[in-house]
Design a protein that fits this description.
Number of helices of chain A: 9
CATH topology of the largest domain in chain A: Rossmann fold
Distance between the termini of chain A: 51 Å
Helix content of chain A: 40-55%
Largest sheet of chain A: 6 strands, parallel
Order of helices and strands of chain A: HHEHHEEHEHEEEEHEHEEH
Largest interface: A-B, 55 and 55 residues
Low-confidence stretches of chain A: none
Oligomer: homodimer
Strand order of the largest sheet of chain A: 8-5-4-9-10-11
Radius of gyration of chain A: 20 Å
Strand content of chain A: 15-25%
CATH superfamily of the largest domain in chain A: NAD(P)-binding Rossmann-like Domain
DNA sequence: TAGATTGTTAATCGATTAACAATC
DNA sequence: TAGATTGTTAATCGATTAACAATC
């Protein structure tokens, strides 16, 4: 189904397509042309067709794309037909918020455990789960088929924990720590640098000031 | 100091430079060459020099860049020398986490208020602030010189609130809602689509599977 | 069949990298 | 001065857009 080596920039557009197709589905659309979709999404129809064609032909000449089919296929490309078991490492404000934010389950992402290294909060409960000690991370990952670790802790801790995760051969790291992690190529890292994002906003605000 | 129309891709790299320069500063470096920095950051030295030169010459031939000076200058470019007053709209898990996450203050971002439309939580306290009714948003923005609104609410609500914010002529919107906002060009939007990010990670995990 | 719209190739545009003259 | 390294121009690479033949 999938071409080898899809460029990063194409990948980063897929979730947005998925989101718009979900909306179209909810609104009762059965088919959509690249032209109509391009108007909705503010991108060129050319780009839409090019992007979709990286993964094979989803459309039909003279008709366009079937909304349901396209939605399903992009979901599969994104791996949303698979189940993922997550753990959250770092039970601070953000970690707890993500643990409680359970729209992820709808897409197949299940939080199986939450960890912290602070003995004052270890043992407390978050969303029915007892906060565990990060010392016990490695066996938990193996026993519970964890494939994604969410890092919501300070950067010093994150670098440490990343080493453990590498040794556990975790599939993916969703990194909210304010640092870049050095891991082997076989381990996938997706960074969410909130402070970087806020700085970008600040830049834009002041860009046209002087 | 600033060229007109810096490309998005350059802007998005600035916070990362800022982060690395902060680290270098903390480690006691006084100067750094584009070559050394390129090794640390895993980008080409050419790119570093090109990027910095969009904003004028920060370096000196034969010497390199002064770490402190460069750090300060990039901070100014990012608007971090200015004070920003924020409000958080949506006092759910994520909103409360961001309200409590006060590393932002260090960079000049001050949370001045938190709002929600749910009458059950209006009046409760988060980090010493009483949760206010979103109905009272507009006057609060004007009276408190709010320039950034953080949207941490469901998409239906976000679209509504965005209209209000536009009418208040807010400078920036930091949007965590799972939708794109349609606002005039004069209003800067920075999106943080967490579910998009998680989907990208999922894609990478399954990319080389079959 | 005629009209619509895709899939795909070719042209354009922009971003990255390489190279080197300027200069500290 | 000689060495190092920037600032900047030129070459390359990749991504976007335009165009159109294929086809439903």
């Amino acid at each position: 189904m999938q071409d080898k080596n899809i460029s990063q920039v194409v990948i980063s557009r897929l979730p947005r397509y998925f989101r718009y197709l979900g909306d179209l589905k909810d609104e009762g659309f059965e088919r959509i042309s690249s032209g109509e979709l391009s108007k909705r999404m503010n991108v060129t129809a050319s780009q839409i067709r090019q992007d979709f064609n990286h993964f094979g032909g989803f459309g039909q000449q003279g008709y366009g794309y079937n909304v349901n089919y396209l939605y399903e296929e992009i979901g599969k490309i994104l791996g949303l037909d698979k189940r993922h078991n997550l753990i959250i490492v770092g039970a601070g404000n953000l970690g707890q918020a993500l643990a409680n934010y359970m729209n992820f389950e709808k897409r197949g992402f299940f939080v199986k455990g939450i960890f912290d290294c602070n003995s004052e909060i270890i043992g407390k409960k978050v969303r029915g789960m007892t906060i565990m000690d990060t010392k016990d991370l490695a066996p938990f990952i193996k026993e519970n088929n964890i494939d994604i670790a969410v890092l919501t802790l300070p950067k010093q801790g994150a670098v440490e924990i990343a080493k453990t995760l590498v040794s556990c051969n975790i599939s993916g790291i969703w990194n909210f720590a304010h640092c870049d992690l050095e891991v082997p190529d076989s381990i996938n890292v997706e960074n969410v640098h909130l402070s970087d994002s806020l700085m970008k906003l600040s830049f834009k605000i002041h860009e046209n000031e002087n």
